[in-house]
Each structure stands twice: as C-alpha cells, then as structure tokens.
Inverse folding.
C-alpha cells in the first residue's frame, strides 16, 4: 500500500482561501457566542480583517505558479490576479453591506423567517438591527469564488460553484424592505441556479466519459486525441458552458438577472454584479483556454453568437427599462457580452483585457449601486426612474458622481469604461474576431441611450414633488463610493499599471 | 522658443482655468466671469506667441512633444501642429474670449450657476485645443469624444427651448459617429503595427490591404461627416444650433464642427490615400448636395439660429468639395474657408445672439423693421450676412473663390453646380436681413424696451476684432495662406495627387 500517497499541498498558495473559510467558520461561531448588541461590529471587523489578510496573502504569494493538491487547484497568474480582484471588490462590497447609517439597522432584515406582513414583521421593519449572518455568508461566498477561479478540475469547480452560490441565494432573500420581492428573487435565483448547476454537473459527467478524467490538463490532452467521441466532447463542453454562462448572465441564460438584481438587497446586488462576474468569467476563461483550446474553432462561432445575443438583448432591453436596478441589470448583461468578446479573442491579449475589464467594470458598478442605495424616501430606495428627475438640483454631488459612472458605462474616454472596451475590442480584432467588435460598437451606441436618458433626467428635468432626497451616506458607503469613482477615473486616465499587471499575469499553468 | 512646450500648456491651461472657475461660489458670478475671461485672454496671448514662433516655411509639423502614456498600447501624449491646425488653434483662442464677453449677461437670469457656464466654456476650450493639437490617433480620439461632454451640458443646461431634445440628439449623433471611429481606430492600431503615432501610421499606409483601408477610412469618415456635418448626417446641427445659447452656438459651428473637416484632412487623406481617392466622388456628391439642399432649407427657416445653422451646413459642403478636389488651391481654399467661416458665422451668431437677447425670441417673425430702432446692430447683421455669403472684399470671398477655381480644374461639373450655392446664399442672407431689420417696424418690437438700446460698448468689443479680421483677410489673406499652403501641399502629396497643369501652359501657348 505504499504507492498510495497523500498529494502535495502547498499551504501558502492556498492560504487566501483557507483564511476566508476559517474566518467564515469563526463568524458562524461568533454568531452563537457574541452578544447581539456587539455582533454587528465584531462580525464586520472580522470580515474586513479576513478579506484584507487574504488580499495581503495573495500579494505575498504573487509569484507562485503551481498546480497543487493533486491537480485540484492551480495557483497561477490569472488565479492570483482574479483572486486579488475578487478580494478588493469584496472589501468594497462589504463596506456597502456593513453600512447602517443610511437606514436604521442596515439594509438587511433582522429575522428573515418571520412571515411578511405579520405583526412581528411590522415591528422589525422599523429599525431592529439587521441579521449579522450576512457577514459569514458573504465570506463563504467570496471564499467559494476564490476557489472557483483557481479550480483546476471540473469537480473542484463544481464544489466551488455551490459554495459561492448557496450563500448568495440566501443573501438575496434578506432585504429589509420589499421582502416578498426579495424572497421571490432568491427563490428564482435558487431554482434556476440549481438547474444550471445540474447542467454543469451533467456536462462534467460527459467530459469524464470523454476523457477519463476531470482535471483540465487531461481534458486538454484528450481533446488533442482524434480517436475519442466528439459527441461526448461537444455535449459536455456545451453543458459545462451553460453552467458557467448562467453565472455570467449571458443570453439566453440571463432571465434571472433583472429579477434578482431588483429584488436582492442593493449591497448584495453590488456584490453579485462585481464579484460574481469576476468569478464566473475567471472560471470560463480557465475552462476554455486551458482545457478546450484544442477545439477553439468549433466553439468560437457558437459562443460568438451568444456574445452577440448578449450584447444585443442587454442593450435593447436596457433602453426600455423604467427601474434603475433593472436598467443596471440589463447593462450588466450587455457588459457580459463585451466580456465574452474579450474571452473569444482566445489569445494572451484576450485573457489580459478580459481581466482588466472585470476589475474596471467591478469598481464602476459598485459605485453605481452605492448611489442607488442612497436615493431613498421613507419607503426605502426610490428606484423608479421618474423619481430621479431633477436629482442634479437637489444633490449635485451625487448626481455628478452617478453621471460620471454612467458616462463610464457608455464608454466615454477618460473613464475606465473606455479603456476596458478598447482593451477587449483590440484583443478581439487581434484575434480575428472583427465581427464581434462591430456588434460591440453597434450595441454600445444603443446602450448609450438609456445611460444618457438618466443623465438628462437628473440634470435637465425639473425636480418633481416625489423626487427623494439623497441620504447622507455613512463613512462606509462614502468610502466605497470614493474608491469606485477614483478607480473608474484612474483606470481611464492611467490604465498602464493595471494593464501591465494583467499582461504579466496572463499565463495559465496546465 | 522652438522647444517651449506650447501645445501641452495651451491644452492644459484652460483645463486648470475651468477647475478654478468651477470652484468659485455661485454667489460671486462677477468674479467667475472676470477670472474666466482673463484666463482665456492669457490663452489667446500664448497662442499668438506660438503663431509668431511658427516658421511658415519650416518643418511640416512643429512644436512636437511626446510623453509616455499607456505603454501597453503604445499610446502617447504626442502633440504637434502643422499650418492647418495652427490657424484653427488661434481661431479657437480668439473666439473663446469673445464668446465669453458676448454671453456676459446671457446666463445671469438662468437659475443654473454662472460659474458653471464659464467653467464649461473653458473645459470646452481645453478639449477643442487638444483635438487640434494631438498627433496621436488615440489622444485625438479621446479629445474628440470628451469634447461632447461640456458642449452637451452647455446646450442642455443653458439652452433655449427644446434644449433637452437638442442636447441628447447632439450627443447621440456624435457618439454614434465616434463609435464608428473607435472601431476604425482599433482596426488601424492592429493593421498599423500596434502604434497610434500619426507619422508612423502615415508611413505604414502603403502597406495596408486595400479593402481594409477602405473600411477603416469609412469608419473615420462617418465620424467626421457627422461632426462636420455633411449631408445626410446633418440633422442634429439645426437642433443643437437652434437650442444652444447663441454665443455657444458660435463656438459649436465656428470651431467644434471644424474638427470634422480637419479630421478628414489630417487623418483620412494621409493615412488612407487610396481609399480617399476611391471615395472622393461620393464625398464630392455629398458636398454638392449639402450646398444646395442646406441653402434651400435655410431660405425656408423661421428661426434665426436654425437659419444660421443651415447656412453652415451649406458652407461645410464647400469645404468638403474643396478637400476632395485634391488640388492645392482648393485645399488651401478649404482650410482658409474653415477659418473664415469661423469668423463670419461666429460673427453672425454673435450678432443674432445680441438680437435674441434683446427681443427674447429668435423667430424671424418676432422682428421686422428692427433697423429703425437699433441701426448699428442692424448694420452689423447686414455686414455679417454679406461676409457669410462671401461678398468680394470680405474674407470668405477669397476662400470660396479658391475652392471653386481649385475644384474647377479637376471637377468642372461639381464646381459649376456648387456655384449655384452662391446665388442661394445671397437669397437666404438678404431675405433674412430684410425680414428682420428692414420694412415696417413690427409694433411688438417697438414695445420691447430692450430693443431700443443699440449696441453697447461690451458688444462693440466683441464684434470689432471679427469685423476687422474679416476685412483684413478679405484684402490681404497672405499671412494665413502662407501658413496653410505648405501643410496642404504636403497633404496632397500624401494622397498622391499633383496639381493639374493648366492646358494653356501645357500646350506651350503661354510664354514662360
């Protein structure tokens, strides 16, 4: 029995994930032991410390390029870069999640199990402190995402997918206001997410049948072998892709996005829009670039059509929206399309530009949802577009910030929206995908219209009687907004450092 | 002197000014105006020093500066100016202080803040200077797009009726054009060997695949045709020009739109010479249609600002045919036309703005016989109109004449048809002057107290430089043509066209 060996484990390379999972478990323990009054501060501090510690670890091990735990986890340039991005964006999201100054008790319900509309529920609306379970849940989700982008075999990837999805389903249901909408969103997300997971798992089974292994290196080797079954290969690839495209919110697997984005508590929406996107595209990049690049000519056109559909549907439906969070949801779908354009370049530039785009977009979208969480009246957030009319007169600073973010989404130069679009489009033309760029440009034109409409609404319309005031943000939200805006501006004006970083990182290990 | 970083300072200076003015509290409107005006005068002074330092017979590009920006893409802050850009830079620097002075009281009653308006004007000046000074395609594109933002807010926040519609239409049209150009810029970057440097791309242009070059040309051309605007991409201009405050409209058509024609001369022709020749017939036809169509529409306008906007579209038709005739004469005429049109139409818009400020309306029917109340202003309107229709003795005559004879040597039919535009120009100008200032006095005009006040000292200061320049350049355009001519010649060489020899000379009938 001496040929049964324990796999080599490089703990340093795994440290970021271990820190997060450890902190999350500790958070669950704190939930039981720390007195209720102090839980919020303690949990928030623990979560922040854990994220910062994980980020520092990622920076410390930045030169690691290994495959460890028997091929289950690959820690390489893209992994570390994406993990760092997830952690950075996670810290900013956590600031939004931890904010309690805008609304008494924060944006989370204190007891989600209480029936909506009951006596007990009415009592808890008005300021009972929100559930502090959100912090361990968030950390679990972020930990899962770190593993997701590092997973080097499809089963690990599946486990990571579940680890980060389940907390997100729960988080979606925890809104303090409009609880039915929030619970509906969670249920929808859960059901559709389970389908997607099932597809993914079935795909993994087919791939296993095809290659006799689940790790990406052996799949890569099997793809190069012409004697194997193409049906299993393409069936498996299609199903695995569906699972990943679902999380990336690509058309036609996007239908959950608007409802979930609208129903979930706004800080959680921000978390999903920024971090989940990084994780989903990180995994997609790894699967396509590492395992299946041998059949790139076969999947490129299919995914190209999906990219075009994603951009078109996202842009066209964004034009028709009258609700701010749904508008941002469709915009996020369209952005998934642009990301796919970068992915489909299938070259080094494609990898690095997609990573650049993910970071740039993440910061902008966090700032956008941060503003959305501030525009509110006594009923909670005022997300209907008509309520934003004339906001520029009432709160010029916040309207200016939001306009700037919208201009970034529209891709106006001197914002990160422009540099990131430029990066992915450039990579795609380099990769011979000019047709995708043409669609990208056309949809950018369509997409400019809804953004511009909001700018017009805020600045050029007269304030209505129902225009709400913008709440004064607490320190946490202010910091999150400042980081988002500064990053959006800085990445638009001096993108060189981050571009260099993505370029250096853009090499998978196999 | 040659090493002084004129262009980067000229670009940055207004931006710093915009930041300073923006932070002046809205209660101190007077201070904000004064600071903004002083700032723009400093910019003007610097641009005049640069004009003097420019050697007309020297290198094609002068004052070249280049700084690292995004090494990954090889995008650099490269500034350089040739004669064509130089005259536009000075024109911008001249118009901005005049526009500020002209809108001194225009925004006082507006509930928006006065410092914001003047800060936006300075920010606009920064982007306009940048777009002409850039010698890096990426940098040019950045300025080209960012330019929209201040103008959008000027129209949207300080404009007249339908300003929201006009602002959005302006923004969307330009953005759509700009995105076509973005695709072309990226494509050019890929086929040009991952560089944005104008010189490098021009040198590499002979190696481009013909089909690719034509598509890329089209991407640039659409953006510039929307910006200029050429028929049939022109519909945003009457709306924007009609809704913008009149002084800002003077900047809009006087300078901002010239980016389109300038872009064609600087980017389309040298980088895609073969495609330029291939597309020239289409561009010429669009130019001729624009001249006649816009002139006819101008005759039918009821709104003074929309009318002037339509006249501009007709003028851009002339500039367009001058460029695509591919002769030095016509090219020089076109560039001179860009300058003179900035002066003449700028003056026309400013004078119209003075009328509108007094009457509170820009409808032709709200005037009538105004010359009896404000004879000097009416005279100025007449003069500006005459300059705009290119009366001999005013500067636009020289440029229009150059364009027409230059075009005639290569494209007789187009030149002849375009000449009809001169007659239509006389019709719209004279009819406009007649309906507003001549004839019986409109009683409603008489009852408007402000209409009894003729030109003020401030307004005299605004119009005097323009009137003087129009007359001066009408009789002695040499200082400007000397600067323009070498740059145009070089551009024509890039396109691979030489000037046709007149038949008389070719046949040896003229003693040499």
């Amino acid at each position: 029995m001496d040929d049964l060996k324990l796999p080599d484990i490089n703990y340093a390379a795994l440290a970021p994930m271990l820190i997060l999972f450890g902190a999350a478990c500790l958070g669950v323990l704190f939930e039981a032991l720390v007195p209720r009054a102090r839980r919020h501060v303690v949990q928030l501090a623990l979560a922040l410390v854990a994220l910062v510690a994980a980020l520092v670890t990622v920076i410390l091990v930045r030169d690691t390029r290994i495959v460890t735990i028997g091929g289950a986890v690959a820690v390489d340039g893209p992994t570390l870069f994406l993990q760092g991005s997830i952690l950075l964006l996670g810290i900013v999201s956590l600031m939004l999640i931890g904010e309690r100054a805008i609304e008494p008790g924060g944006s989370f319900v204190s007891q989600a199990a209480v029936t909506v509309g009951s006596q007990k529920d009415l009592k808890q609306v008005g300021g009972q402190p929100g559930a502090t379970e959100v912090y361990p849940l968030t950390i679990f989700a972020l930990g899962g995402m770190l593993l997701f982008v590092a997973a080097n075999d499809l089963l690990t990837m599946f486990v990571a997918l579940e680890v980060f999805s389940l907390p997100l389903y729960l988080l979606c249901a925890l809104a303090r206001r409009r609880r039915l909408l929030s619970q509906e969103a969670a249920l929808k997300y859960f059901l559709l997410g389970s389908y997607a997971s099932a597809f993914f798992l079935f795909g993994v089974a087919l791939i296993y049948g095809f290659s006799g292994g689940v790790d990406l290196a052996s799949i890569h080797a099997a793809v190069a072998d012409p004697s194997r079954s193409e049906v299993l290969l393409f069936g498996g690839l299609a199903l695995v892709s569906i699972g990943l495209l679902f999380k990336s919110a690509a058309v036609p697997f996007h239908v959950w996005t608007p409802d979930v984005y609208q129903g979930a508590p706004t800080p959680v929406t921000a978390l999903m829009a920024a971090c989940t996107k990084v994780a989903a595209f990180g995994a997609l990049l790894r699967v396509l670039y590492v395992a299946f690049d041998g059949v790139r000519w076969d999947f490129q056109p299919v995914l190209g059509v999906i990219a075009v559909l994603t951009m078109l549907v996202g842009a066209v439906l964004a034009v028709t929206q009258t609700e701010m969070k749904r508008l941002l949801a469709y915009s996020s779908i369209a952005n998934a399309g642009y990301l796919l354009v970068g992915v489909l370049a299938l070259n080094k530039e494609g990898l690095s530009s997609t990573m650049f785009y993910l970071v740039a977009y993440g910061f902008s979208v966090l700032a956008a949802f941060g503003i959305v969480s501030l525009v509110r009246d006594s009923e909670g957030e005022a997300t209907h577009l008509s309520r934003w009319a004339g906001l520029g007169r009432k709160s010029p600073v916040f309207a200016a910030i939001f306009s700037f973010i919208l201009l970034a989404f529209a891709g106006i130069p001197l914002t990160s929206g422009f540099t990131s679009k430029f990066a992915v489009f450039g990579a795609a033309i380099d990769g011979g995908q000019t047709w995708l760029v043409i669609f990208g440009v056309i949809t950018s034109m369509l997409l400019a219209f809804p953004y511009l409409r909001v700018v017009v609404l805020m600045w050029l319309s007269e304030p209505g009687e129902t225009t709400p005031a913008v709440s004064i943000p607490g320190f946490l939200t202010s910091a999150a907004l400042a980081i988002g805006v500064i990053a959006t501006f800085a990445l638009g004006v001096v993108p060189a450092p981050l571009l260099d970083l993505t370029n250096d990182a853009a090499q998978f290990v196999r | 002197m040659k090493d002084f970083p004129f262009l980067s300072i000229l670009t940055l200076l207004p931006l710093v000014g915009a930041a300073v003015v923006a932070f002046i509290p809205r209660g101190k409107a007077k201070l904000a105006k004064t600071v903004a005006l002083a700032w723009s005068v400093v910019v003007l002074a610097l641009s005049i020093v640069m004009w003097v330092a420019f050697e007309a017979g020297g290198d094609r590009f002068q004052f070249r500066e280049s700084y690292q920006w995004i090494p990954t893409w090889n995008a650099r802050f490269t500034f350089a100016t040739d004669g064509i850009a130089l005259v536009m830079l000075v024109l911008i620097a001249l118009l901005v202080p005049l526009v500020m002075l002209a809108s001194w009281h225009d925004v006082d009653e507006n509930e928006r803040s006065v410092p914001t308006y003047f800060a936006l004007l300075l920010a606009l000046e920064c982007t306009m200077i940048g777009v002409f000074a850039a010698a890096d395609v990426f940098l040019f594109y950045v300025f080209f797009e960012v330019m929209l933002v201040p103008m959008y807010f000027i129209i949207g926040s300080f404009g007249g009726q339908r300003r929201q519609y006009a602002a959005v239409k302006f923004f969307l049209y330009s953005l759509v054009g700009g995105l076509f150009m973005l695709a072309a810029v990226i494509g050019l970057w890929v086929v040009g060997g991952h560089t944005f440097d104008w010189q490098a791309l021009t040198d590499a242009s002979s190696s481009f695949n013909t089909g690719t070059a034509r598509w890329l040309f089209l991407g640039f051309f659409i953006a510039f045709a929307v910006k200029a605007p050429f028929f049939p991409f022109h519909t945003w201009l009457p709306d924007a020009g009609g809704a913008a405050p009149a002084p800002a409209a003077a900047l809009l058509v006087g300078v901002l739109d010239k980016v389109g024609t300038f872009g064609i001369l600087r980017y389309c022709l040298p980088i895609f010479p073969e495609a330029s020749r291939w597309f020239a017939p289409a561009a010429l036809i669009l130019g001729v249609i624009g001249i006649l169509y816009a002139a006819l529409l101008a005759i039918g306008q009821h709104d003074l600002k929309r009318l002037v906007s339509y006249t501009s579209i007709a003028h851009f038709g002339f500039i367009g045919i001058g460029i695509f005739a591919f002769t030095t004469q016509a090219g020089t005429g076109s560039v001179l036309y860009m300058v003179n049109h900035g002066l003449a139409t700028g003056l026309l818009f400013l004078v119209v703005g003075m009328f509108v400020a007094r009457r509170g309306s820009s409808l032709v029917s709200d005037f009538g016989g105004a010359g009896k109340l404000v004879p000097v202003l009416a005279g100025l309107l007449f003069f500006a109109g005459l300059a705009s229709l290119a009366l001999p003795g005013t500067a636009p005559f020289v440029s229009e004449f150059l364009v027409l004879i230059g075009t005639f040597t290569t494209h007789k039919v187009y030149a002849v048809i375009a000449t009809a535009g001169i007659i239509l120009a006389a019709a719209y100008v004279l009819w406009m002057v007649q309906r507003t200032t001549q004839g019986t006095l409109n009683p409603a005009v008489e009852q408007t107290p402000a209409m009894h006040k003729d030109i003020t000292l401030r307004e005299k200061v605004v119009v005097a430089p323009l009137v003087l320049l129009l007359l001066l350049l009408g009789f002695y355009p040499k200082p400007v043509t000397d600067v323009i001519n070498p740059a145009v010649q070089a551009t024509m060489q890039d396109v691979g066209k030489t000037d046709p020899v007149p038949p008389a000379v070719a046949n040896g009938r003229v003693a040499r």
Notes: The first helix of chain A runs from residue 11 to 33.
